[in-house]
Each structure stands twice: as structure tokens, then as C-alpha cells.
Design goal:
Layout: E1 7-8, H1 10-17, H2 21-29, E2 36-37, E3 43-46, H3 47-61
Antiparallel strand pairs: 1-3, 2-3
Helix pairs in contact: 1-2
């Protein structure tokens, strides 16, 4: 559906970004990218929002995360 964010698992996000699941988890813990938690307790990520947040974080803090 147009306008709806594309929500994916941490594994899918990691694959999309070319990093490991552990890196995605570290970014969430550090507040670099947001996660939506489902009613079942599973984290889901908006791919485009994660990419925007990472670009902003890199611009603001450097690329060492």
C-alpha cells in the first residue's frame, strides 16, 4: 500500500544495509535507529527511516559506529 512504511525484521534490515544483525542491535541500543515492537515483542524496522537516521548519524557523529 502506498505511503505505508516497509517494516522488516532485524535480519532483513541487516541484509538491506550490508551489516550484521548484531550491528543493527547495537544501533538500536545506542539510539541510532528506531525499532517498532510488535504485540508479540518482535522488533520491526522501517527501511527508509533507518537509512535516513544512519545518514544523519554519520553526518553528525562520523562513520565510526
Amino acid at each position: 500500500m502506498p505511503g505505508q512504511p516497509r517494516l522488516v525484521s532485524s535480519s532483513e534490515l541487516a541484509r538491506e544495509l550490508g551489516v550484521t544483525r548484531q550491528t543493527v542491535a547495537r544501533w538500536v541500543r545506542r539510539g541510532v535507529i528506531p525499532a517498532t515492537v510488535t504485540a508479540g515483542g518482535q522488533a520491526r524496522f522501517d527501511v527508509e527511516q533507518a537509512k535516513r537516521e544512519l545518514r544523519e548519524h554519520t553526518r553528525r557523529d562520523g562513520a565510526n559506529d
